[in-house]
């Protein structure tokens, strides 16, 4: 188990030089480029958030959570080195195989295990990022405060899009790309994950094979697999609407302040997609709320 300072951790390349030099480019994310696989490791460009993420990954390892990569240090080129999680990752847009109920339920179960393993991490420090690093949310100044969102109660991944979930034999087993990790509330993280996987978005922003899914039934399944209690379910839909409104402000701020992939996503219309999501959630508020309180059919 790691007990050293991640800032001092250096990765020793394997003695097999041919293996060490063979790089396989991995799919580009919305923001981070230049991610490659070398043997059983992944190399990622070092980020301002890297050491905060490394500390969190170390905690998950100590907590026995096996669904996250391990931070091994930095290589000779200064890149972050993490263990490679074997499995399939849905594309963008996610393929039809990613729509199964088994996979949906397993995503909720994996998220619950992550939250339980994360509980208490850095609580005494007010969720400040360790090792003189920052969390992603601290890199963006938002003029419109997120006062409608619940306060943080743990550290989490915060970005369980299909492209960040590793699947084996039809079940979610691991998470990758922890760049967005940071303080979160359990319910807000559940809402955000359900937004991608149920999905809780406007049909115009979905692939054709996702538009025909029974959203209410999938929401009920997801909530049950995570283990949401009744009081929490009462707050779910209103929080999803509030989250959409806050997300649009934050995405615009990220585009203006960080540029790069954030600016590209804004130029491609992500703000409009978020606005459509807010409108869709508002229109279907009653049906979604009812679904959360129906008994799951046998």
Give your account of this protein's structure.
- With 298 residues, the chain is α+β, with helices and mostly antiparallel strands.
- It has two domains: 6-83; 96-127 and 143-293, Aminoglycoside 3'-phosphotransferase, Chain: A, domain 2, CATH 3.90.1200.10.
- The chain has ten helices and nine strands.
- The chain has helices at residues 17-21, 50-62, 101-118, 186-197, 208-211, 215-226, 230-258, 260-267, 270-283, 285-293; strands at residues 24-25, 36-38, 41-44, 71-74, 80-83, 154-156, 165-168, 171-175, 182-184.
- Strands 1-2-3-5-4 form a five-stranded antiparallel beta sheet.
- Helix 6 (215-226) packs across helix 10.
- The protein starts with 16 loop residues before the first helix and ends in a 5-residue tail after the last helix.
- The mean pLDDT is 91.
How do the SSEs run, as a string of H and E?
HEEEHEEHEEEEHHHHHHH
Name given to the CATH homologous superfamily of the largest domain: Aminoglycoside phosphotransferase (APH), C-terminal lobe
Instruction: List how many beta strands DSSP finds.
Output: 9
Straight-line N-to-C gap: 43 Å
